[in-house]
Structure formats: structure tokens, C-alpha cells
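USER: My hope is that you can spare some time for a protein that puzzles me. I am handing you a single protein, as its sequence and its fold in C-alpha cell form. Walk me, if you will, through where the backbone shape changes along the chain. The protein I mean follows directly.
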Amino acid sequence: MSESPSIAAHPLRTWFEPGRRPQQDRVQVADQPGLARKTAIWRPRDDSPTAEKRLFAEASLWAQLEHPNIPPLYSITRDSEGLRVATRWIDGRPWSEGLAQSGSADLVEQVEVLREVCRAVEHAHLRGVAHRDIKPSNVMLGAEEEVFLVGWSAARDLNDTTSTPAGTPAYVAPEVARGDAGDASSDIYLLGGVLYRLLTGAPPHGDTHGDKAMAHARSRALPRFADDLPAPLADCARRALDPLPSRRHPSAAAFRAELEAWLAARPLEALLSGIGDQIAELKASLRDAEANDAKPREVFYATRTMCLQAATLDGDPEPALAMLHNACALYFEHALANGRASDAQTALEAIPPR
């Protein structure tokens, strides 16, 4: 029997990849020939004991989290260069890059990404960990459409009473801006801040950094939304961004549930919009039709089919049934006026019970 290959026999070849080096820590790309994969190798940002202690604390929390939306941490070891933390290398790009490049990006697609971020936050909270720095630049989108929440350097063990405030001023929760360490409810605020960014194009405390953003956070100003934004999403963000933590969603799961309710309603909303266009076409065909014109009949039957389909989708069937009632009434009057008793009877039978 051949001997299994030894990992030690395949030392890591490491290098810095241009343009991929974070500001706070020294991260290298490592090639593991024996495993045919790339690995990210994290080093302390300098040679001080404080920097090493900080990276070790971050890695210790990160190692507790095993979830599809959190990159796995492989090992915490020491070599000739000092502390070495090995994690999955993500072949992708930060979510923030895509948002910056496409201001009119599809909202459904972006909300789907945020939904996956919520799953990572849910898992962290169940493990007693608060992320404290949720923002688009700390979300990586993999080459195979994976979504990963990264940036765990600010994470806090919720049982640690010695933690100090941390986060990004443009997104930070009011209580953190006032000096609190931040907890699970502060992460809910951050999720709301990301949703605010998707809806408005800017973070909740503006595209500013430092003192100005922190002052805005401390002001506890309520968010404002344009009237043309999706009301369910605006309401979700408004609740999550409430200055009082007790008024926010009780969990990341509750926040995610509101996103999923909006996503589930999208097919119905699109279909109802199409029915509205169809009824407008029906009115036009009735107005312009000759006595024996078949066009109104074709449009009516198409409208009826769409209404019945919409009534079977998840959500309130009443709007679709009301539109069907309207279409039936319009076609019944036209058929009756043109002596088409059979068509009039068809319209009567299609009228939904009220």
C-alpha cells in the first residue's frame, strides 16, 4: 500500500497578491501543492505583542464559527515568522465593488445577498459572537455566487465584559457611538444600515468618516426614505435603524424573515403589474373594436388567465380577484351591447365570488 502524502512534505508557498492586501493585517496567499488549493495566511499587522494578541483573539472567535456563509478557518499555528492563521482563500470580490460600479443594480439580487449575510450573523449570535462591523466591504462574493461575511477583526465575545467600542463610523449604531461595546442588537442596526445603503445609495450616517459620521450616529436621527422605494423594505430598515435597541428586530432571523417576505412577494407584484397593463389593453380593444372583432375576446381570456394565476400565488389573492372582477365587468358590458350572449355568459361565470 502506498504511503499517504504528508502535509508537512508540502510546505506552503506564500506571496502577497497585488491589490488584495488588507489595511490592518498582513495577509498572504498560500499555495498548498499537496492539497491543490490556495489558502489565505494572516499575520499580525506588526511585530508587537499587542498585534499578535489581537490576531489570536480574532482567530479564536472565528474558529468557533462553522457556517456556509463564513469562510472556514483551517489552523492557528506558529512558524519562523511568528503567528500564522490559515483560512479559506476566497476567489471573488468585495460586495462593495459591485455596488459602487452599478448604482442601479438589481435590488432583488442585492437583497438576496443581504439575506445570506443575515444567515451568517444568525449563526454568530447563536455562538455568542457579535460581528460589530457589518458593511458591504466586509462581504465577499465568490466566483460561484457564494456569499461570505468576513472582517471578523472587530468581533466580540458577548460574554466578554471588557470589550471596547468598534465598528465603521458610517454604519455604527448610536449606542456604540456613545461608547457601548455593542452587542447582537447593534448588529441588527448594522444590517439595517446595509439595507439603507441598498435603498438610498449611501450609508445611514452618510459617505463620511470619523467625527462627522460619529456625531450623526450619536444624534439618533431617524432614517428617511423616498416614497417610491419598496415600502416593506423601507419599513424593515426603519425598524432595524431605530435608535432604541429594544425597538429593533429581536434577532437577525426576524430581520431576514422580512427580507424573505418581500422576495416571495416579488412574483405576485410583477404579475399584478402585468395584469394592470392587460386591463388597459382590454379597455383600448373594447373602445376600438368593431361589432364582430375578436381582439377583445383574446385580450379578455389572457387577462382572466393571468388573474387566476396571480390568485394562486403566495400572498393576498384579493387584488388579483378584484382585477378579474373589473375585467369581467368590462367584457360583459361589451358582449351584451354587441349581442354576443355566449361571451356575456362567459364573463358572468368568470366573475369571482365576493
